[in-house]
Design goal:
With 266 residues, this protein is of the alpha/beta class. The chain has twelve helices and five strands. It folds into two domains: 3-19 and 192-263, Helicase, Ruva Protein, domain 3, CATH 1.10.8; 26-187, 3-Layer(aba) Sandwich (Rossmann fold).
């Protein structure tokens, strides 16, 4: 445990969703605003693409947490390895429905009626599917597309958000009917050197660090080893802080980062 050694209130680089550590960059703000607009305007289907560890889930969770709980009914699917019937059952279950997987047409109709009731009660339904590139069958994508056929008074009854790695884009491209329903294609990339440095300093400050402990050369080295991928930076910096405490270091400097990279390849 290195919190006391570095004068921290909490672990700054844990890989869990925590709004206190939500970092803002120009690209992140743009993606968050676009996702928010897609939900509020009921755009139908929005897709967010990015490589592993770039913060796609974090940004989407941040957007959804800002929505009024009384207005929005949110389904968050983290295990997308579901067949078409299983996907409908999971959506229905999270919406509080008793839904069986025997008749898909009946399930779709039950979902439609529930979403209509939501609209009439001034509530919106949002279905977010994380790691959507792991959906195993085109039939599951087709069932999700059919949800977009649910409309009332010229508005969608549900907003779909697909979050996934670049292969998701290729999968959707092979399904023309689904691709044509995508209202918004978004991308989240790696951090630049400057953004990486700001990110590391922000996380340290948010954890209660009150003195400069990270040198600019160290931040540059972290960016170089991790290629600006936030999750990889989190892992490396956590180990830097642990190793620095064990060695009695006063600063996280370039040599400590290099030693950490040797012991804990990221």
């Amino acid at each position: 445990m290195y919190l006391e050694y570095w004068g921290l209130d909490r672990f700054p680089f844990d890989d869990v969703a925590d709004e206190r550590f939500f970092f803002r960059s120009r690209e992140i703000d743009t993606v968050a605003e676009d996702l928010h607009e897609a939900v509020v305007r009921r755009r139908g289907l929005a897709v967010l693409i990015g490589e592993i560890g770039c913060g796609k889930t974090t940004v989407c969770q941040h957007v959804l947490l800002q929505l009024p709980e009384t207005r929005y009914r949110i389904v968050w699917i983290t295990n997308a390895r579901l067949g078409p019937g299983e996907m409908l059952v999971e959506i229905g279950t999270q919406l509080g429905l008793e839904i069986s997987g025997r008749d898909r047409n009946a399930m779709l109709e039950q979902l439609r009626r529930h979403m209509v009731d939501n609209v009439r009660s001034d509530r919106d339904t949002v279905v977010c599917i994380d790691e959507a590139q792991t959906i195993p069958a085109n039939e599951t994508f087709e069932e999700l597309r059919l949800l977009l056929n649910f409309q009332l008074a010229n508005r969608f009854l549900v907003t779909l958000l697909f979050i996934g790695q670049p292969e998701l884009q290729r999968m959707i491209a092979q399904l023309p009917q689904l691709q044509q329903r995508v209202a918004l294609n978004l991308h989240l990339g790696r951090y630049s050197q400057e953004e990486s440095t700001r990110y590391l300093l922000f996380r340290l400050r948010s954890a209660g660090c009150s003195r400069p402990i990270l040198t600019r050369q160290a931040a540059t080295a972290v960016h170089r080893y991790t290629l600006g991928v936030p999750r990889r930076m989190n892992h490396m910096m956590d180990r830097c802080l642990a190793l620095g405490a064990r060695r009695g270091a006063r600063l996280i400097d370039r040599k400590l980062v290099e030693a950490t990279a040797q012991l804990y390849p990221c």
